[in-house]
C-alpha cells in the first residue's frame, strides 16, 4: 500500500514515498528533496554466498544525465561507467552502513540509488544517503539502524546544514556526518584550514540534525517496516576456537604477530596455518572455516595486546610514529618529484604542469563544476604489498584515496590567475603497510613545492586507529596505525591539514559508532602527529616552494587583453590564433575575461607570440612604432603584415629619405622592417612610414 511521509529538512521539504514503485525489492523509497528525485532500493539474496569470509555488500549510485536535461556525449549516447563523483558517493554510503549489518551475514546485499531529477539546491548525494538508510530500515534485511546523514557548510563563520548551491560555492567547509541514535559513524570533510575546535563543533551539530531525521525514519519503519528475516550464520564455531588454542597457545600467537616486519609476521602465520591444517586434516567442516578462525584468533590477540597490555605488534609506544624519511627530485626530467616514507609505507609523487586548456572536463550532474584544474591520482600496484595480480586500472579504493588527497591540497593551491597552470599529481605506492593515502598527501606537498607551485602552506596527513573494550570508556587511540592495526582495529581516522587548520578528514569504523571523547582525542592526536611530520621531516627536506618552475616544465606568461578583442586574436574559425601557434610553436589559452596564457619552453618564441597578440589588439595610432613583414609590393608602395590578419601600407614616398623610382629598389618580399604609424590617409586607411622611424 502506497504511503507518503514528509518532514522539513534545512528549510526544504523531504518526502518519502513507500510502496509506490519497485515493490519487488526488499525495501524501496522514492525520495523527493525539493525537485531532486532519487529511487533508493535494497535487495538481498535468499541464501549466503558460499566460499567467502566477508559480507558481500554492493552500493551503487547511478547518475542519469536526463536528471539535468542532458544527452550523454560520445557515440553511444548513453551513460557509461560510473563517474568519479558516483564512486565517491557510493563509498560514503557504504562506509557508515556496512558495520550496521550482522558480522556473520553472508547474503549478497545491493543498495541501488537511481538519480532521476536534480535540484541544484537539494543534494542528490545526500538524498541517496538518507534514501539508502530508509530502504534498508523498512526492508526485511537484518540491520542495526536506522542511521542518517547530514552535510554541513561554513559560510561567514556560521554553520549551514545541507547547503544549497550558492552556499556551497561560498563555504569554507564541506562536511558529511553520518550517525545512529547514539553515536557518530562516519565523517568525511574538506575544509579551508578549519580549526580543530570548529570541526568538532560542526561534527556534533550535524549529529543533532541527524537525530531529527532518525526520528522521522522511525515513524516510517513503525508503519511500513517489514519483520527482519532470519539467516544462516557463518560465525566460526566456538569449539573450533578452543581446539585451535590447544594446538597454538595464546603465547605462541603473540610471538607470531609481535614483530615490526610485515613479511616476518606473514611467514609466522603461514607456519601456524600449516600446523593447524595438519591438526584438523580429518575435519572438513573445520577446514572450511579455518582461515576465518585464524584471522579471528590474530584479531583477538592483537586487540588484547594493545588494549590490556598497551603493546603494539611492532613494539612502538601508543603515540609513536614509525621511522620517517623524505626526499625530493628523485626522478629526472619530470616537473617535480618527492618521496615520503613512513615505516613500510612509501609513496613517490610526480607533479606535471600544463596549460589550463588541459584541465579535466567533467560531464556530470553538478553543473557548477564542469572542469578540474587540479587532479590527484593514486595508484596501488600489487607489488606494494608483495602480491602478484594484473593491473586492471584504478578501483574504487584508489579513486577514493586520490580524491581524499586532492581535497586535502586544494585549499593551499594558488589561484589560476596567480599560477595559470593545470596541475596533476600522481602518487605511486612503492610499499604499503598502513595509511598510504596520508603518505601521498605528504609526498604530494613536497612534490608540488619542488615543481615550483606556490602553495600557501605545506599540508601533512596522518591516520590514527582505535581498539575498544566492553564499555564506551574502555578504549585506546593509536597514532600512525600500520596495516595489521587497521585490519584488526575499530577505526581508521585520517586527518590532513596545515599548521593552522584541517583541510580534509576521512573516518572509517567497524563498530557501531564513536563517542565525542574518542573523536576529540583522535583529532588532537592527529594534530600533534602532523606537526611532528611537518616540522621534523618535510620542512627540513624542502621548506618552501621553489621560485620558478623546473627546467623541463612549460613556462607560462599571462597577459590581459580587452575581452572585445578576443575575436580578433582568434580570427574566423580560429585562423588567426592557429597561425600564431604554427609560427611560434607555443600553446595559447584565452578566457572569456581576456586573460591570455602563452605556454612554451622557448622564451624567445613565447615573447614573439606575445608581441603578435599585443599587436593584434592594439589600435593603430599616430606615432606608434611597429615591426612588419613585406607581403605584397605594388607600384605605389608596399603592404606589410604586422600580425596574422593585421596589415598596413607604406607609400613609395615614405620608404626612403632618398628618392626611389621603384619599391623593389629598396624592399623585397619577406623583408622585416620597422615602421611608424602616420594615422589615417584621405581614404580612411592606416598608413605607415619607414623613413620617419626615429
UniProtKB/TrEMBL annotation:
Keyword RNA-binding in record: yes
Location relative to the cell: Cytoplasm
InterPro entries: ExoRNase_PH_dom1 (IPR001247), ExoRNase_PH_dom2 (IPR015847), ExoRNase_PH_dom2_sf (IPR036345), KH_dom (IPR004087), KH_dom_type_1 (IPR004088), KH_dom_type_1_sf (IPR036612), KIX_dom (IPR003101), NA-bd_OB-fold (IPR012340)
Example GO molecular function: RNA binding
Domain S1 motif: start-end pairs: 623-691
One Pfam match: KH_1
Keywords: Cytoplasm, Magnesium, Metal-binding, Nucleotidyltransferase, RNA-binding, Transferase
Domain KIX: 223-302
Cofactors: Mg(2+)
GO cellular component, one term: cytosol
Chain sites annotated for binding Mg(2+): 486, 492
GO biological process terms, semicolon-separated: mRNA catabolic process; regulation of DNA-templated transcription; RNA processing
EC number of this enzyme: 2.7.7.8
PROSITE patterns: KH_TYPE_1 (PS50084), KIX (PS50952), S1 (PS50126)
TM region positions: none
Catalytic activity as recorded in UniProt: RNA(n+1) + phosphate = RNA(n) + a ribonucleoside 5'-diphosphate
Family: Belongs to the polyribonucleotide nucleotidyltransferase family.
Function as written in the Swiss-Prot or TrEMBL entry: Involved in mRNA degradation. Catalyzes the phosphorolysis of single-stranded polyribonucleotides processively in the 3'- to 5'-direction.
Protein name (record): Polyribonucleotide nucleotidyltransferase
Native species: Anaerosporobacter mobilis DSM 15930
Amino acid at each position: 500500500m502506497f504511503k507518503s511521509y514528509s518532514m522539513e529538512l534545512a528549510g526544504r521539504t523531504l518526502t518519502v514515498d513507500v510502496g509506490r514503485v519497485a515493490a519487488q525489492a526488499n525495501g524501496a523509497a522514492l525520495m523527493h528533496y525539493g525537485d531532486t528525485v532519487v529511487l533508493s532500493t535494497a535487495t538481498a539474496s535468499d541464501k549466503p554466498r558460499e566460499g567467502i569470509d566477508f559480507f558481500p555488500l554492493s552500493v551503487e549510485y547511478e547518475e542519469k544525465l536526463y536528471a539535468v536535461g542532458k544527452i550523454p556525449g560520445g557515440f553511444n549516447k548513453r551513460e557509461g561507467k560510473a563517474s568519479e563523483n558516483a564512486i565517491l558517493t557510493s563509498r560514503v554510503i557504504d562506509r557508515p552502513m556496512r558495520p550496521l549489518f550482522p558480522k556473520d551475514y553472508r547474503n549478497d546485499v545491493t543498495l541501488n540509488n537511481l538519480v532521476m531529477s536534480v535540484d541544484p539546491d537539494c543534494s542528490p548525494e545526500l538524498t541517496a544517503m538518507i534514501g539508502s538508510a530508509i530502504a534498508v530500515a523498512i526492508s526485511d534485511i537484518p540491520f542495526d539502524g536506522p542511521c542518517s546523514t547530514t552535510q554541513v557548510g561554513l559560510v561567514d563563520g556560521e554553520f549551514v546544514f545541507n547547503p544549497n548551491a550558492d552556499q556551497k560555492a561560498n563555504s569554507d567547509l564541506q562536511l558529511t556526518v553520518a550517525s545512529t541514535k547514539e553515536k557518530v559513524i562516519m565523517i568525511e570533510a574538506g575544509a579551508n584550514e578549519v580549526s580543530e575546535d570548529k570541526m568538532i563543533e560542526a561534527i556534533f551539530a550535524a549529529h543533532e540534525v541527524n537525530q531529527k531525521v532518525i526520528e522521522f525514519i522511525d515513524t516510517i519503519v513503525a508503519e511500513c517496516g517489514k519483520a527482519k528475516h532470519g539467516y544462516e550464520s557463518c560465525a566460526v564455531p566456538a569449539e573450533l576456537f578452543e581446539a585451535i588454542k590447544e594446538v597454538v597457545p595464546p603465547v605462541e600467537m603473540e610471538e607470531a604477530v609481535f614483530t615490526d616486519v610485515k613479511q616476518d609476521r606473514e611467514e609466522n602465520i603461514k607456519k601456524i596455518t600449516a600446523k593447524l591444517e595438519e591438526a584438523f586434516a580429518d575435519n572438513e567442516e573445520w577446514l572450511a572455516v579455518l582461515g576465518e578462525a585464524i584471522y579471528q584468533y590474530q584479531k583477538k590477540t592483537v586487540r588484547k595486546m594493545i588494549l590490556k597490555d598497551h603493546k603494539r605488534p611492532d613494539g612502538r609506544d601508543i603515540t609513536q610514529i614509525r621511522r620517517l624519511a623524505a626526499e625530493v627530485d628523485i626522478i629526472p626530467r619530470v616537473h617535480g618529484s618527492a618521496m615520503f616514507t613512513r615505516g613500510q609505507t612509501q609513496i613517490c609523487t610526480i607533479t606535471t604542469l600544463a596549460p589550463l586548456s588541459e584541465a579535466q572536463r567533467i560531464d556530470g550532474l553538478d553543473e557548477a563544476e564542469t572542469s578540474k584544474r587540479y587532479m590527484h591520482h593514486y595508484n596501488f600496484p600489487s607489488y606494494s604489498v608483495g602480491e602478484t595480480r594484473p593491473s586492471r586500472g584504478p578501483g574504487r579504493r584508489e579513486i577514493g584515496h586520490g580524491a581524499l588527497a586532492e581535497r586535502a591540497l586544494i585549499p593551499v593551491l594558488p589561484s589560476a590567475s596567480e599560477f595559470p597552470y593545470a596541475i596533476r599529481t600522481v602518487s605511486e605506492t612503492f610499499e604499503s603497510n598502513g595509511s598510504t593515502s596520508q603518505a601521498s598527501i605528504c609526498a604530494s606537498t613536497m612534490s608540488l613545492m619542488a615543481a615550483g607551485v606556490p602553495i600557501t602552506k605545506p599540508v601533512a596527513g596522518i591516520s590514527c586507529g582505535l581498539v575498544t573494550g566492553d564499555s564506551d570508556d574502555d578504549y585506546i587511540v593509536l597514532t600512525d596505525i600500520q596495516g595489521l592495526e587497521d585490519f584488526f582495529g575499530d577505526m581508521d581516522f585520517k586527518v590532513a591539514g596545515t599548521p593552522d587548520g584541517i583541510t580534509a578528514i576521512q573516518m572509517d569504523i567497524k563498530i557501531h559508532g564513536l563517542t565525542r571523547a574518542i573523536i576529540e582525542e583522535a583529532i588532537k592526536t592527529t594534530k600533534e602527529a602532523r606537526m611532528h611530520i611537518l616540522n621534523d621531516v618535510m620542512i627540513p627536506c624542502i621548506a618552501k616552494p621553489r621560485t620558478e618552475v623546473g627546467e623541463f616544465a612549460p613556462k607560462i606568461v599571462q597577459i590581459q587583453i580587452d575581452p572585445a578583442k578576443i575575436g580578433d586574436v582568434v580570427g574566423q574559425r580560429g585562423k588567426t590564433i592557429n597561425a600564431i601557434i604554427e609560427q611560434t610553436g607555443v600553446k595559447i589559452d584565452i578566457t572569456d575575461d581576456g586573460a591570455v596564457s602563452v605556454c612554451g619552453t622557448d622564451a624567445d618564441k613565447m615573447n614573439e607570440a606575445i608581441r603578435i597578440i599585443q599587436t593584434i589588439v592594439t589600435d593603430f595610432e599616430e606615432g606608434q612604432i611597429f615591426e612588419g613583414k613585406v607581403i605584397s609590393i605594388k607600384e605605389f608602395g608596399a603592404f606589410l603584415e604586422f600580425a596574422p590578419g593585421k596589415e598596413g601600407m607604406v607609400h613609395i614616398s615614405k620608404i626612403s629619405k632618398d628618392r626611389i623610382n621603384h619599391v623593389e629598389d629598396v624592399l623585397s618580399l619577406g623583408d622585416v622592417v620597422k615602421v611608424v604609424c602616420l594615422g589615417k590617409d584621405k581614404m580612411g586607411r592606416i598608413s605607415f612610414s619607414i623613413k620617419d622611424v626615429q
